Amino acid sequence: MIRLLDHTEYLQPAPLCIALLGCGNVGAEVARHLAGRDGIIITRVLVRDTGRSRPIAHALLTDSFDEVLASEPEVVIELLGGVEPARSHIEAALSRGISVITANKSIIARHGESLHRLAALHGARLLSEASVGAGTPILAALDRLRGDRITAIRGIVNGTCNFILTRMEATGGELHEALREAQRLGYAEPDPAADLTGRDSAEKLCVLAQRAGWGWIHPDAIATRGITTITAEDVRHARRQRCVIRLLAEAQRSDDGTVSLRVGPCFVPAAQRLARLSGCENAFEIESQLAGCIHVQGPGAGPRATTSAILGDLHSLTASPNGAAATPRSLRRARLTQPGALRRHYIRADAPAGPVDPGTLLDVLNRKGIRADSLDLRSTRTTIHTVAVSSDAAADLAESLAGGHADRCLVAPLME
Ligand code: HSE
Predict the structure, then answer these.
(1) Is 158 in the pocket of ligand 1 (CB under 6 A)?
(2) In the structure, how many helices (H) and strands (E) does the chain have?
(3) Domain termination residue (choose one: 265, 299, 333)
């Protein structure tokens, strides 16, 4: 537990003892900023391989979490990523009354409920501003709106995907080329599938919903599509429609308290604010009953931006060691409902077994009760803009045209 300073300590405060878990891209950046700071002692840095050179005194490196605990830190900064062993380490620290700062959205999304309860039980705090939006203080913004009623959250919450999609627009290249560059710049997760499949965005959407006071939601309960099937041709097609393709996370809370959430690619009109985000930026639109629509935008990935959020959490921990946990202990499970809105959709499907017969295509459309706004049938590729349909109906149509292969189609609603 962080001690309260008495009068004499205030004049000459005792140093704060911090242990770091992880010294990868972000961990190394945090270590660089903490090392040599007045009033801070790094007690240990947990790494997998103590033989590798790091920007930190070698004597501080350890591969043993027991040694980390034995060094008696008052704060643990968890930057390992992934669920295990990070979750167990956070649990062990909180159980000993040690406050934890983490950038780990997987853990906050999947285990936030039990970990916040544990922190409260032991008088510790669990802070996680860096888990969404990296250096963009979106969770702090949601905290400030808790007296209001938040009714909707929409945004671009994955920097890697935004970087990839804007890069594909700029270069005309394919996804895998842009991904390599995102990895080089340290934006992508260790397993980039988490970014590309939308899993990272779904986890962040859960954290946003928690902080909006909507309740606990498991990321697996969110209808999620990623960007893996987007091709350079899709990007060019969007441009001809004066749109860009963006991976959007969207959540709404109805008057009856039910919550609907969705992550997936969207055709965003080029004139919209969300279309103009560049590189690894994130943007969030929050709608609330009293304040109206609020926009928060900034860098959403990368070691420096993430370090900014970690240092911000450290500052609020030392400024207010016993401050209320940002996520209330009373939060319940959210009541979920399927996103029901009918929207216009872009559908592109590649048939695996030769050209599609136009008569058969019209038949399929008729049978599914889907009206096409425009329809382009080129050999094995079908491109359809539908009138308003549900996301499920659009996905069902795409997959049947692609012979059941979800990896051979793209389904994207049009953001109105
Ligand atoms: N891979 C994540 C992203 C890092 O690209 O947004 C920040 O959470």
Answers:
(1) yes
(2) 14, 17
(3) 299
